[in-house]
Amino acid sequence: MKLLLALAAALTLIVAVSSAMLRLSLGGAGCTPWPACYETRADHAVQTSLTPEQVPGWHRGVRLAHRVTASLAGLLFLMATLFGWRRWSYSERCAALVLLAVSVGLALLGRYTPSPLPVVVQANLLGGHLLLAALGWMLVRPRLANHSSATTSAWLPAMVVLLMVLVLAQAAIGGLVSARSAAAACQDGNCPLFPSDAAGAFDSMRSNASLPPSMHAPQRQAVLQLHTVSGALTVVVALVVAWGARRSLPGPAMALATVAVSGPLLGWLMRSGPMPLAITVLHSLLAAVLLALATGLCRRLRRA
Ligand code: HEM
Questions:
Q1: Does the C-beta of 171 come closer than 6 Å to ligand 1?
Q2: Which of 34, 229, 283, 286 maximizes ligand 1 atoms within 8 Å of its Cβ, making it the mutation to test the pocket?
Q3: Nearest to 279 by CA among 29, 27, 89, 42
Q4: 180 and 38 in contact (C-beta within 8 Å)?
């Protein structure tokens, strides 16, 4: 069963990466001449009317890989549930139901993707994150709390849950940053922490067509600044969690700290200047890995 779940997790990672590659490259991540090309792509109509010459050749292969791996992953979720249901605990059954419900939801959402509405980008992102979190939960055995030798601080489990909520919120705001093409909003340096006149910035049902076209528009600056500030908070909480788990779970603690610092560092590079597509995709992927690690740690801290 563990092999089946690990295979499903690997396929889900490929689905998340291929989805981010398609979305972010259409959105202008890594395009030239920066930032003019990125500003142009903020308009969804431009993204969907690109000529075949303007769409990178690898899109076709990645789109096919996305569809094939998504279908295979769905199949593995179903097989794992059929074979594992009887001997699973209540929480594992809940995680399996999350896998099935979210993958059906994402399949339906696929019909409306790409979309000018940020809410569709956020739903795709959060769906992928939730799949990896559920798999992280099912792949890890709860043991630590039963080991008399293992002492963890009483506050640690609650802190891990806080981290999971923060990473999910960060993914939602990050999806808004990319849907609003706001990565370059502060690259001219004149960027107030709380831009005024940012009406509509956080309305995920509002497309970019109803916002000022400038990439330095206050709405874009507001979204990026919030993502940056809450990103810093998420890093602090992740490091506190890693510190709390350093003795009882040194390996997971080190992995969590490494991912929690490297992801936002890439984010800082992306908001400071033009970055290749691979960096933006890696930032998105590390966010999903951070959530899966935090979920696995949360399970590990629980009583069997
Ligand atoms: C733990 C903290 C963080 C998490 C979990 C996180 C997560 C994300 C996610 C999921 C996206 C969407 C990517 C996509 O559309 O696939 C994103 C986008 C972005 N993030 Fe973060 N982020 C974090 C911290 C930061 C920080 C600290 C910064 C900057 C200082 C940053 C800058 C950006 C930028 C510029 C984008 C837009 C990329 C684009 O569309 O070109 N992030 N983030």
A1: yes
A2: 283
A3: 29
A4: no
Contact 128 CB / ligand 1 (< 6 Å)? no
Q: Identify each DSSP E strand in 205-286 by its residue range.
A: none
User: Looking at this protein, which amino acid is placed at residue 85?
Assistant: W
Give me the residue label for tokens 């939730």. 130
Angle at 238 between CA 233 and CA 241, to 5 degrees: 130
Q: Is 177 in the pocket of ligand 1 (CB under 6 A)?
A: yes
CA–centroid distance, residue 50 to ligand 1 (Å):
25
Closest approach atom of ligand 1 to CA 235: 1
What 3-state class would DSSP assign to 22? helix
Compute, in angstroms, the gap from residue 83 CA to the centroid of ligand 1: 37
Q: Estimate the share of the chain in helix, then strand, then coil, as percent rounded to the nearest 5.
A: 70, 0, 30
Q: Which residue has the tokens 């050749």?
A: 57
pLDDT score of 304: 53
Q: Which residue has the tokens 């590390």?
A: 286
Ranges of the chain with pLDDT below 70: 44, 143-151, 303-304
Packing angle, helices 2-26 and 277-300, rounded to 10? 150
Measured at the alpha carbon of residue 105, what is the angle toward residues 119 and 178, in degrees to the nearest 5? 30
pTM of the model: 0.93
Q: In this structure, what token pair is assigned to residue 125?
A: 């992102």
pLDDT value of residue 113: 84
Q: Read off the DSSP letter of residue 33.
A: S
Q: Write down the pLDDT at residue 144.
A: 53
Q: Is the CB of 180 under 6 A from ligand 1?
A: no
Question: Is residue 29 in contact with ligand 1, taking CB distance under 6 Å?
Answer: yes
Cα–Cα distance between 297 and 62 in angstroms, integer?
32
